[in-house]
Amino acid sequence: MNEGGGRLAIPVGADDHAQGPDDAAITLVEYGDYECPYCGQAFPIVQELQRVFAESLRLVFRNLPLSNVHPHAEGAAEAAEAVALQGRFWAMHDLLYQHQRELRAESLLKYAEEAGADATQVAEVLARRGTRARVENDLEGALRSGANGTPTFFVNGSRYDQSWDFDTLREFIQAELDRG
Questions:
Q1: pLDDT tens per residue, range 84-115
Q2: CB 50, CB 59: distance < 8 Å
Q3: Calpha distance 71→54 (Å, rounded)
Q4: Rounded CA gap, 54 and 158, in Å?
Q5: pTM summary value
Q6: Pairing of strands 152-155, 26-32
Q7: Into how many domains does the chain fold?
Q8: Has residue 2 been placed in a domain?
Q9: Which of 113, 115, 170, 176 could lock onto 119 through a cystine, CB 3.0 to 4.6 A?
Q10: Would you say residue 136 lies in a domain?
């Protein structure tokens, strides 16, 4: 972890996967890995934060597949991006976390279909590695921002290095809102 806290190297932009208003007071960026058990633990916490803070919070998700320890993470990230090409990123994102212990290639296509995407098109994109550059760009941004583990969170561009349990993160976000 970055002792002094870091800054988000690549600002949030129109190409990011975001939920919540663009002008939300708080932007929470998560660098995550679909196969990471800690990201799996953070998934419902982030969902609850979205519920609690509603229109005050914008969530941005970026890929940080730790392929050296999670052999299916990169494939899952590329599949999520392939589904995103059909406008169904968040449905796929959620399915991948809900089924993170089963991320083999054949399962990814099943989840793509469940997410409302055309699985044949997703398979074609994956076969030509059509979303690999997107995942690699996210990975590069993570490394430039000092994110070397998952999940790594940034709140309004500053790295969040405290515990990401619900209460601690909620209190931090509330303090940021109160300051704003």
A1: 999 999 999 999 999 999 999 999 999 999 99
A2: yes
A3: 35
A4: 21
A5: 0.95
A6: antiparallel
A7: 1
A8: no
A9: 113
A10: yes
